[in-house]
Amino acid sequence: MSENILRRGRLSQTPERKVLEYTTSLPFDREIFESDILCNIAHTRMLMERGIIPEEEGRRIIEELVKIWKEGMEALDLDPSLEDIHMVIENELIRRLGEDVAGKMHTGRSRNDQVATDIRLTLREKVLLILKKLINLEKTLISLAEEHLETLFVGYTHLQHAQPTTYGHHLLSYLSMLERDIQRLLDGYRRINISPLGCGAMATTGFNIDRRRTMELLGFEGLIENSMDGVSTRDFILETMAHLSILGTNLSKICEELILFSTYEFGVIELSDTYTSTSSIMPQKKNPDVAEIARAKLSTLNGNLVSALTILKALPNTYNRDLQEVTPLLWSSVYTILDTLEMVEGMLRTLKVKRERMRELAEGNYSTATELADTLVRECNISFRSAHGIVGEAVRRAIEEGRDLVDVMEEVLKKYNLTLEREKIERALDPMENVKVRKVIGGPAPEEVKRAIGSYLKRIEDYEKEVDNKIEKIENVKKKLLEL
C-alpha cells in the first residue's frame, strides 16, 4: 500500500482497505486523468511566471507531467489508499522528482478547485463530441427527408389517423426537435467553460497567483469569481444532465416510432438486419431490439438526473465529499447518449421505407376530411364549425352505410341546401392535393419541405463551424501545454 502523503501528518491511522475502496474515486477518475495533467501544467506554468516556484523546478515538473500523459493512466499506481487521481499523479511525480521539487506543484491550490476544473475540462470535450454526433444525425435525417419529399404518409394524433403528410415532413419533425437539443448544449457550454482554478479550498490563497493566466492557458472563456461558489457549484453538471435527459426523451420518441412503424400492423418501414434480432423459438420473428434497448437505456438519464439533484439539494456551501458521487452519474449519461446517437443514426441511415404501404394508409380512413371541411368554407361561404359538422355527419354515414364518401357527401349537402361540384369534393379528398395545398411555413407541401431543408442545412453548417472552432481551440490549448 502506497504512503498517503495527506494522512501522515494529522491522521495517525490508515483506514481498512474496504473503507479505502468505498471512498476512492479512482474507478471513475479515468475520465479526468488527462484534464488533471493539463490543469497541473497550467497551474505550474503560472507559478513559474509569478516567481512563486523556481523556473527550473517548474520545468522539471512539467516535463514529468508530459511523460505521465504519454504513458497513460494504466502505468500509474492506482492504490485506493491514494484516494483519487490527483494524489495518484502527485504521488508519481514525487516518486520521480522527490518531494522537495514535486511537492511544490500544489502550492496555492486545493484538490477542491482542481477537481472542479478537471470536470469542466473533460465535460466541455464530451459535450462537443455529443454535438458532433447530433449534427451527423441531423445530416442523415436531411438526406432521408430529401428522398421522401413526395412520399405520401399519414400523420397521427392520439395514434389515430389525422391528416395526410409526407414522410419527408415527418422526418423534419425529428430534425426540428433535435436542433433545439443542439442549441441547448451550445448555450450550456458557455457555463461549463468557465474556470474555478485558483479558488483554493474555498477562500483562494495568500500566494500572489494569477487566475486569469490559468484561465487563458486552459482555454476557458471566463472565471467563477466567488471562490466559495467556484469549488461547490455543480449546477453546470445538472444543466448538462438535464439537457441530456431532454435529448434522451427526443431520441426515445424516435425509437418508439421506429418500433411502432415497423410492426406488421403499420408496416411502413423495415429496420436493417444489423439493428434487429430474432426469436429463440419463433423463427419468423424480426425484433427491433436495438431500438428497444435504446428506449430503455435512455430512461436511465432521468434517474441519473434525479439522483444528482437529490445529492446536491441539501448540501451546505463549498466543498463536500458527496460531490464525488455526482460525476459518475454525469459520465454514465454522457456515454449513454454518445452510444445511442450512433445507434439511432445507424437505424435511420439503413432504414427501408415502404412507400406503397404509406400511400395506402394516407388514402384510407378519411384522413382528408379536414381539407373537405376547409373546401366547404371557401366554396360555400359557411363557418368552419358548420362545415366541421357537415363533414362529420357525412363520414359517420359513409362508415355506417359502407358507402363511398363522395356519394354520401353530395346527399348531405343537399340536406343543408348547399352545392359543391363533385370534382371539387374529389379533389379535396385526394391526399396529395391535401399535402400540396399546405404551403404555410412548416407545412408538408413538398416545396415548403424543400425550403425548410435548405434553411436547416444553413443552420447546421453554422452549428458545425461553431463546434469545430471550439474543438480546434481546445486542441491548440493541449498542444501548447504539452509542448512547454
UniProtKB/TrEMBL annotation:
<comment type="similarity">
    <text>Belongs to the lyase 1 family. Argininosuccinate lyase subfamily.</text>
</comment>
<dbReference type="InterPro" id="IPR009049">
    <property type="entry name" value="Argininosuccinate_lyase"/>
</dbReference>
<keyword id="KW-0028">Amino-acid biosynthesis</keyword>
<keyword id="KW-0456">Lyase</keyword>
<keyword id="KW-0055">Arginine biosynthesis</keyword>
<keyword id="KW-0175">Coiled coil</keyword>
<dbReference type="InterPro" id="IPR000362">
    <property type="entry name" value="Fumarate_lyase_fam"/>
</dbReference>
<comment type="pathway">
    <text>Amino-acid biosynthesis; L-arginine biosynthesis; L-arginine from L-ornithine and carbamoyl phosphate: step 3/3.</text>
</comment>
<dbReference type="InterPro" id="IPR024083">
    <property type="entry name" value="Fumarase/histidase_N"/>
</dbReference>
<dbReference type="InterPro" id="IPR029419">
    <property type="entry name" value="Arg_succ_lyase_C"/>
</dbReference>
<feature type="domain" description="Fumarate lyase N-terminal">
    <location>
        <begin position="10"/>
        <end position="299"/>
    </location>
</feature>
<keyword id="KW-0963">Cytoplasm</keyword>
<dbReference type="Pfam" id="PF14698">
    <property type="entry name" value="ASL_C2"/>
</dbReference>
<feature type="domain" description="Argininosuccinate lyase C-terminal">
    <location>
        <begin position="366"/>
        <end position="435"/>
    </location>
</feature>
<protein>
    <recommendedName>
        <fullName>Argininosuccinate lyase</fullName>
        <ecNumber>4.3.2.1</ecNumber>
    </recommendedName>
</protein>
<dbReference type="Pfam" id="PF00206">
    <property type="entry name" value="Lyase_1"/>
</dbReference>
<feature type="coiled-coil region">
    <location>
        <begin position="453"/>
        <end position="484"/>
    </location>
</feature>
<dbReference type="GO" id="GO:0005829">
    <property type="term" value="C:cytosol"/>
</dbReference>
<dbReference type="GO" id="GO:0042450">
    <property type="term" value="P:L-arginine biosynthetic process via ornithine"/>
</dbReference>
<dbReference type="InterPro" id="IPR022761">
    <property type="entry name" value="Fumarate_lyase_N"/>
</dbReference>
<dbReference type="InterPro" id="IPR008948">
    <property type="entry name" value="L-Aspartase-like"/>
</dbReference>
<dbReference type="GO" id="GO:0004056">
    <property type="term" value="F:argininosuccinate lyase activity"/>
</dbReference>
